[in-house]
Amino acid sequence: MTPIRVVEKRSESSFAVSNVLDEFYKFEKYADASVAELSIWKLPIRSVLSSLYLSADAKFVGGRFNRKMPRDADVGTAMISRLSYVSSYFGKSPTDIGAHIDDALSVVDVAVARDFEQLLGYAHFCEIVPLVRNGFFTVESRESGFHLRHPNVDFIRHEENDILMSEIVLPHDLVRPPYPIQHCIEMVKSLRGGNQGEIQRQSG
Which residues of the chain carry a pLDDT beneath 50? Predict the structure, then answer.
């Protein structure tokens, strides 16, 4: 007797989902290859890291050295936390140190700045892809790109509750701690030509 072969029937919608995911994963490979070829990897690693850390620092404090901008600590935190996703590329850069920080940053122009934007966007993408693979997001294809959303309303509610509870349990200072001005004075005193009096006047 010929055994009956069971063939799983798949709906058109399931084929559509599969095709969209295939397209998404192809884009992932394209993004990986594109980031590996960014021009910033030809720059000294000090130039790369200094640019990234100074950009994050500017978000934390609102700019330094007479460059003022709106503070956004959440963006600064995200930039730092996502660097682990791109750290494997740092070995592509030469290890030249340069004469000083201004020398290291002198190679950063408009084109390089665009590459850094691409790198940070890619780092965010790396954070999202595992969530897609594990079913935390469904993917829809749009003319402008991909649209990601949680699979259902219950999932959204649980995610909202999880974020809310995570924020509630974080410690918060009721009174802002004093600025460590004495430590800053000691740092200035250790520098050649440091002006302690000027620091004290500014702190008052």
Answer: 1-12, 15, 194, 196, 198-204
CA dist 109 and 99 (Å) reads 19
CA distances from 174 to 50, 60, 171, 177 (A): 34, 20, 10, 9
> Does any domain span residue 87?
yes
Query: How far, in Å, CA of 32 to CA of 48, rounded?
Result: 18
Contact 132, 148 (CB under 8 A): yes
What predicted TM-score, i.e. pTM, was given to this entire model? Answer: 0.70
Residue 152 within a domain: no
d(CA 83, CA 71) in angstroms, rounded, equals 20
Q: Where is 141: in which H helix or E strand?
A: strand 138-142
Domain boundary among 81, 110, 136: 136
Q: What is the pLDDT of residue 203?
A: 44
Q: What whole-number distance in Å separates Cα of residue 71 and Cα of residue 62?
A: 4
45 contacts 35 by C-beta, under 8 angstroms = no
H-helix segments, 37-152: 45-61, 73-82, 101-105, 110-133
Residue type, 184: C
CA distance 24 to 30: 10
